Amino acid sequence: MDKTATPDRPWARKLGAPRGAGRTSKGWGQEAALRMLMNCLDPEIAENPQDLVVCGGSVRAAKDWASFDAIACSLGELESGQTLLVEAGKPAGIFPTQESSPRVLLTGDGAGSWTYIGTQEILDETYEIFAAAGKKHFGGDLAGKLIVTGGMGRTGGVEPLAATMNGAAILCVEVDPERIKKWMKRGSGEVMVNSLDEALRILKNAVRKREAASVGLVGNCADVIPELARRGVVPDLLTDQCAARDPLNGYVPSGLTMEQAAELRERDPQEYRQRAMESIVRHVEGMLALAKLGSTAFEYGNGIRAIACEAGVKNAYDFPGFADAYIRPILADGRRPLRYVALSGEPEEIRRIDRLALDMFGEDEIFSRWIRLAGKQVRFQGLPARACWLGRAERVRLGVAINDLVARAELKAPVVIAGEDFNPVSTALPSREAEREAVHGGNVAASDGKLLNSLLEAASGASWAWFQKGGEIGQWQRSGYAIVADGTQEMGGRIERLLTSDSGLAMA
């Protein structure tokens, strides 16, 4: 495609979104969708922007560059009484609707919602789960508690920061030292060591002083977790983020460096998988042993229990998954993820909204701690944005208040408010694990609920809404919405209706 920049082709300038109060589209709904589409391909956010991959190795902002260009052109030309349909990352048509209708509706595998703001979303979710564990098991925060986990990939890499934000001391076991170094540079992780003795010395001292601390240990969970049980070192919380769902490509067998693992995987994949399965068995048996000694263990959606069960560990499910243990109780309380994005590109505008939110909801200890610490420790990626979790009434109040800030010209440009109908089954892979979690939760009709949520959000006035499915065989569903707080009275009413209807029907 022709990527030459012209005034009517702002998306062609670079990967990343335009900033400021001016717009090239015919309305802020269209402009916001275009900027967010571009924003999720910002090199600070996207996993592989040149190939349109936003995250997860395969989730794309558009099917291909021709489709991206066609979507961007359509958004630039779209009237305020029209709606663009996007199916599986490709524009499917423009239809006459109403000004209060969504400007975009998206569906299909990997179509992308265009509201991804980077690792802050994953960090915030992990923070909430650790906070819920502290509240459930320890009567408050995690100060003076030890967390042990494994794996510092895309999701596991945020655990050190999420834990210390909750006041805990955390040991993260990772076989690849480069991953530990990468996350330390991003502010998640404080110290890297090669010795378990050294790691425990640091962490025991932090626990004794009730100080937050994080240590990345270069090692293999199949060795370290059973060794902790042998020594009688019992963490308060025990989980794992290794890519166990894929023993061939995701889990490194015990006794191998990253280089040796790559060579064996290429030379003899069958032997590699067998050795990985044996290591997963030792890993899970170590977790079970620590749970018997008193650790609160839970699986973090990586399917390690299912793989261990397949390999012969009959009691692999003796500890729960994170969905049942923590997410469902959070959702039952009405708490859902929300994010707000400053289209002006001004970081101070997010800080202004943060201060407003603290004034409004300062009594919510988990929320206020997150907002205060995120303001200090979380670096913005792409357009300045904040992820947070709030109850339904609080989401409504905050959304209306943001629109009022724009109306009073306290912000230089409109703000995108976005949310998802969060489904814990979405992260419970592989498919048999998803099925078990869904049936156990009595939520076998989750996909119908997601579809109904998406239809309701579109009818309630979302600026754009989506319904997606994905995974290896399309086993998860996800729906969500975005709305543009442009400061108008009409939009204030739409925000109130939309956030009130954001009920999470699939989890009811």
Task: Outline the structure in words.
With 508 residues, this protein is α/β, with parallel strands linked by helices. It folds into 2 domains: 12-112 and 334-508, Urocanase fold (3-Layer(aba) Sandwich), CATH 3.40.1770.10; 120-326, Urocanase like domains (Rossmann fold). Helix content is 43%, strand content 16%. It is built from 17 helices and 16 strands. Helix 7 runs parallel beside helix 9, helix 9 packs across helix 10 (304-310) and helix 14 (392-407) packs antiparallel against helix 17. The protein starts with 27 loop residues before the first helix and ends in a 7-residue tail after the last helix. The model is unreliable at 425-444 and 471-475 (pLDDT under 50).
